[in-house]
Automatic annotation (TrEMBL):
This is Catechol 1,2-dioxygenase. It comes from Prauserella muralis. Belongs to the intradiol ring-cleavage dioxygenase family. It comes from the Bacteria. NCBIfam families: catachol_actin (TIGR02438). GO terms for biological process: catechol-containing compound metabolic process. Its cofactor is Fe(3+).
Length: 282
């Protein structure tokens, strides 16, 4: 299979996201208790039944749904579908108790084990990586204000074409993916480039749903992070840029006002200051 036969982002991104989920997360999925399966499956099915009655769903519409669900699996787009249209509510429920940063969805493109770059450094990138250079400084603290030394910040994001390494072809393996740690005062400095707005793949089943419903496929430009420190809850978040036309209508409903950056022009690109507050683990 050669890359020239494909739009760069789509079909391959879906299949890669499915493979990534199977290799990283499937093994950690514990058996769900029977009582929970019974309760949740019954309530979800009731909501479907209620929708059918309320809108008098026809056999043609039912068969269109069947065909679409079959295609969703064939295209490997279950992770994309769930992360775009469901994960934001899972995240909301999972973090509602937090005093520190609440975060937002992980999405389908996280890969553990990105190269380590210390507390001040550049994310791996190509020579002449396209995009505005961005110098990001910040501090990681606990909810009581204590700086957290040796905290870990995993950063991953799309390039200036809106493509993610390891999911779109032709990009170096760890491009725009790095692991940073905080210094003794909890501080870090990360050099990267501004990502572009991201369009979820349009040539698979998710794209077919978007087209059939007359929606758009865009997420605003964003930086993904996972921030962790011993004795603290893992924070999964995304950071956004003011003025992006999709901040108010993100297809994945994952923008929160507290995740908005405030970049300032600098000599060569932009600087931005943004830190994280982690909740002690219960
Ligand atoms: C999707 C992509 C993202 O970059 C993201 O943050 C969330 C969802 C997706 O294509 O499903
Ligand atoms: Fe993303």
């Amino acid at each position: 299979m050669t890359a020239t036969h494909h739009a760069p982002a789509a079909a391959e991104s879906g299949a890669s996201a499915t493979e990534r989920f199977k290799s990283d997360k499937l093994a950690t999925v514990a058996d769900t208790p029977k009582e929970r399966v019974d309760l949740l499956a019954r309530e979800v099915l009731s909501a479907v039944h209620e929708t059918i009655r309320r809108h008098k769903v026809t056999y043609d519409e039912y068969n269109a749904l069947k065909a679409w669900l079959i295609r969703l699996g064939e295209d490997g787009e279950w992770p994309l579908f769930l992360d775009v249209w469901v994960e934001h509510v899972i995240e909301e429920v999972a973090t509602e108790h937090r005093q520190g940063n609440k975060g937002t969805i992980e999405g389908p493109y996280y890969v553990p084990g990105a190269p380590e770059r210390g507390s001040r450094g550049s994310v791996p990138m190509r020579d002449n990586e396209p995009g505005t250079p961005l110098v990001w400084t910040g501090r990681v603290t606990s909810t009581d204000g204590t700086p957290l030394a040796g905290a870990t910040i995993e950063l991953w994001h799309a390039d200036a074409d809106g493509l993610y390494s390891q999911f779109a072809p032709g990009i170096p393996e760890w491009n725009l993916r790095g692991t940073f740690s905080t210094g003794s005062d909890g501080s870090f400095e990360i050099r990267t480039v501004r990502p572009a707005p991201y369009q979820i793949p349009t040539d698979g089943a998710c794209g077919a749903l978007i087209a059939a419903a007359g929606w758009h496929a865009w997420r605003p430009a964003h930086l993904h992070v996972k921030v962790s420190a011993p004795g603290h809850e893992l924070l999964t978040a995304q950071l956004y840029f003011p003025g992006d036309e999709h901040n108010d209508d993100d297809i994945a409903s994952a923008v929160k006002p507290e995740l908005m950056l405030d970049p300032a022009p600098a000599e060569d690109g932009e600087t931005v200051s943004y830190g994280f507050v982690l909740d002690p683990a219960a």
